[in-house]
Amino acid sequence: MDIKDLKNIVTIVQESSFSQASKRLFVSQPALSQSVKRLEVELGVPLFYRDRSRVLPTEAGMLLATKGEPLVLSLEALDREVRQLGKPENRIVTLGMSQFYGHHMLSKALKSFGEYNEGIHLQIVEGESYFLENQIKMGRLDFGIFPSPIYSSSLECIPIVEEEILLVINENNKEAMELAVSLEAKKQEIPIESFAKFPFILLKPELKLRSLVDAICLEHHFRPKAIFESENLDTCYSLVRDNYGITFLPNTIRHNKPSDGIRFFHVDTKLSRRDLVLVSMPDVAEKLQLAQVAKHIGEALQRP
């Protein structure tokens, strides 16, 4: 048994799925299954119970995962630390961002990082925040920029700027626009239950912002009628721009888009605010001065 075997077992236990674990580990599912079978033969004990819906660890599998995870994280931290002793001009640091945030703030992030890490090359990896968080935890990425919440307590989480989730309506959507304007005139933040009958363009259910939007709507006692679900916020924006429905978007997009006949409205809920954060392992945060980088990015984002 080696560290790769331990990482495989830990990941399968975390995901309760061979297919999801294989995606995180960047290996094929058959290859992952074969590696587990080989380890079970080597150790002489089964590590997982398998059925059609999920994978559960046996007592031996849980023992390996529980005691193996700190070893995996420790070795990955050691690997990063040793690599950071190399010549700065040969260093490549990996930054994870979603396509949306890359589109709207990558140049500011690159400039801010360069202010504190001169001569280090930055490589960009795109993905949704849950995937990026796991890649950082596994040592495959140095740091990432994505919205809270962050699910792993072992990661350093540095706030960059507070985001507000806004209701977005095309000005040609006369009925929705008149309702929003009239409600806004009475109160700066509008009660979104008034829009329950309108068609929504939303992110897919497994994405972080969609979970937040569902919670906001549930607080207002309705479920949004999604006529289209996307993995990309820019797609949601473009469909509202073409007047297919209304949506929710972070105010980050408002600062970086032309008007396009689109109006943004504040929502009457405390749930509409979240932090955009810079995430890394603690040792990486210290060596790359990421607290200063995060502050610099936040200041840049708040400038016109």
Question: What layout of secondary structure does this protein have?
Answer:
Layout: H1 3-15, H2 18-25, H3 29-43, E1 48-50, E2 55-57, H4 59-83, E3 92-97, H5 99-116, E4 121-126, H6 129-137, E5 143-147, E6 156-170, H7 174-186, E7 199-203, H8 208-219, E8 225-230, H9 233-241, E9 247-250, E10 262-265, E11 273-280, H10 282-287, H11 290-302
Parallel strand pairs: 3-4, 3-5, 7-8
Antiparallel strand pairs: 1-2, 5-11, 6-9, 6-10, 6-11
Features:
46% helix, D-Maltodextrin-Binding Protein, domain 2, 304 residues, single chain, 21% strand, Arc Repressor Mutant, subunit A, two-stranded antiparallel sheet, globular, alpha/beta, seven-stranded mixed beta sheet
Strand content: 15-25%
SSE string, helices as H and strands as E: HHHEEHEHEHEEHEHEHEEEHH
Shape: globular
Q: What is the CATH-assigned architecture of the largest domain?
A: 3-Layer(aba) Sandwich
Task: Write the CATH fold name of the largest domain.
Answer: D-Maltodextrin-Binding Protein, domain 2
Low-confidence stretches: none
N-to-C span: 55 Å
Q: Please report the number of helical segments.
A: 11
Kindly report the average pLDDT value: 88
The major sheet is characterized as: 7 strands, mixed
Number of strands: 11
Gyration radius from CA atoms, angstroms = 22 Å
Query: In percent, how helical is the residue content?
Result: 40-55%
Counted up, domains total 3
Structural features, described:
The protein is an alpha/beta fold and 304 residues long. It has 3 domains: 3-83, Arc Repressor Mutant, subunit A; 88-160 and 276-302, Periplasmic binding protein-like II (D-Maltodextrin-Binding Protein, domain 2); 162-274, 3-Layer(aba) Sandwich (D-Maltodextrin-Binding Protein, domain 2). Helices cover 46% and strands 21% of the residues. Strands 3, 4, 5, 6, 9, 10 and 11 form a 7-stranded mixed sheet that branches. It has a two-stranded antiparallel ribbon with strand order 1-2. The protein has a two-stranded parallel ribbon with strand order 7-8. Strand 3, helix 5 and strand 4 (121-126) form a beta-alpha-beta unit.
